[in-house]
User: Which sequence fits this backbone?
């Protein structure tokens, strides 16, 4: 495997692991209604997994944000309803 491929693989692994590590720390909250289409962090009632929300601001799609941040974001809610 070339050095370039190793670097790309390492960067992808880090990008995938970073959100999981942040969530595991417990210093985050789910912020509903602020994700762009296809940029949600996890499954919703209308989408099967991360990155599959259908529209911007979908009310059941969420992003993991640092605690205390969600209510500062226009349209951000701590619940999906």
Assistant:
């Amino acid at each position: 495997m070339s050095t370039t491929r190793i670097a790309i693989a390492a960067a992808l692994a880090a990008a995938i692991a970073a959100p999981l590590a942040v969530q595991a720390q417990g210093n985050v909250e789910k912020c509903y209604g602020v994700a762009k289409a296809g940029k949600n962090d996890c499954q919703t009632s209308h989408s099967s997994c991360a990155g599959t929300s259908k529209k911007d601001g979908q009310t059941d799609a969420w992003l993991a944000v640092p605690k205390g941040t969600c209510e500062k974001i226009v349209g951000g809610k701590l619940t999906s309803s």
